[in-house]
Specification:
The chain is built from 8 helices and 7 strands. The chain has 260 residues and is α/β, with parallel strands linked by helices. It has a 7-stranded parallel sheet with strand order 3-2-1-4-5-6-7, sandwiched between helices. Strand 5, helix 5 and strand 6 form a beta-alpha-beta unit. Bound molecules: nicotinamide-adenine-dinucleotide. The site of nicotinamide-adenine-dinucleotide (NAD) has 28 residues, from helix 1 and helix 6. The site of nicotinamide-adenine-dinucleotide has 28 residues, from helix 1 and helix 6.
Length: 260
């Protein structure tokens, strides 16, 4: 299998896109570390992925906004699984509100999870990767890394910011064999999106059906949600890609919602 012998740390991997990414990487032979706020869910996910794939899978508690927890968690993964080759910085949340009502505490929470989390996990990972021949770092961006929507000021700001971090890491990491990418999904039917449908319907004064058809899928070419598997397969492809030809790029996976 293509990722035999590799170790991948995936944050926010007890649910949704992160969980599927761990499944795909484990099926390709990688040992996977499922890091999440929720230890019980992370351990349960790891046990299920280990049983289904035959690859090693461990669950650990990690709040990506907590410097000490990220440092200790990354060290524990390296010790338990014997190294680290791939980081998927995926953990994320959504808080929607118009700018004039956006609570400062919510703004700071959003930037902490999406940007502080990406920085802290990157720093902890590259200290190991630089000393051991390199590896791959993938950030979970969004179509909102490239486009804007109402009610999502903090999310759009944070997801745009990930492009900058990935590009700097691509430049700094090249000499150490580290490649950096941003994967940018359109709407994927996960708990994060399911929570937004009634919230957006209330905020925009339209029905939940209209939120799905017009707001979420209105600009796709086929009215389809992006599947978790489409994101997992894109990440597997990037982990397997054999050179730095694509480093620093972002990849939009959105049924044609956003093209560039
Ligand atoms: P999800 O809610 O299904 O999963 C997110 C996971 O992150 C949960 O298991 C949660 O416990 C974990 N998490 C939250 N805060 C954390 C923290 N501080 N530390 C560690 N773990 C934490 O959501 P999802 O839809 O799978 O989203 C995953 C990523 O994909 C996010 O970065 C999100 O912005 C991005 N994304 C999602 C969509 C979509 O449509 N679902 C689209 C584009 C981008």
């Amino acid at each position: 299998m293509s990722l035999n012998g590799k170790v991948a740390l995936i944050t926010g991997a007890a649910s949704g896109i992160g969980r599927n990414t761990a499944e795909v990487l484990a099926a390709a032979g990688a040992a996977v570390a499922i890091a999440d706020l929720d230890l019980a869910a992370a351990e349960r996910t790891a046990a299920e992925i280990g049983a289904a794939s035959g690859s090693r899978a461990v669950g650990l508690a990690m709040d990506v906004t907590d410097e000490a927890a990220v440092e200790a968690g990354t060290r524990a993964v390296i010790e338990t699984l014997g190294g680290l080759d791939i980081l998927v910085s995926n953990a994320g949340i959504q808080i929607v509100s118009p700018i004039e009502d956006y609570a400062f505490a919510d703004w700071k929470k959003m930037l902490a999870i999406h940007l502080d989390g990406a920085f802290l996990t990157t720093r902890a990972a590259v200290r190991h990767l630089y000393a051991h021949g390199g590896g791959t770092v993938i950030y979970m961006g969004s179509v909102h890394s490239h486009a804007a929507s109402p009610l999502k000021s903090a999310y759009v700001t944070a997801k745009h910011g990930l492009l900058g971090l990935a590009r700097v890491l691509a430049k700094e990491g090249a000499a150490h064999g580290v490649r950096a990418y941003v994967v940018c999904p359109g709407f994927v039917r996960t708990p994060l999106v399911d929570r937004q449908i009634p919230e957006q319907a209330r905020a925009l004064g339209i029905s939940e059906d209209e939120v799905v058809r017009r707001v979420m899928l209105g600009e796709t070419v086929d009215g389809e949600f992006t599947a978790v598997g489409d994101i997992g397969e894109t990440i597997r492809f990037l982990c397997e890609f054999p050179s730095t030809a694509l480093t620093g790029q972002s990849f939009i996976v959105s049924h044609g919602w956003h093209m560039q």
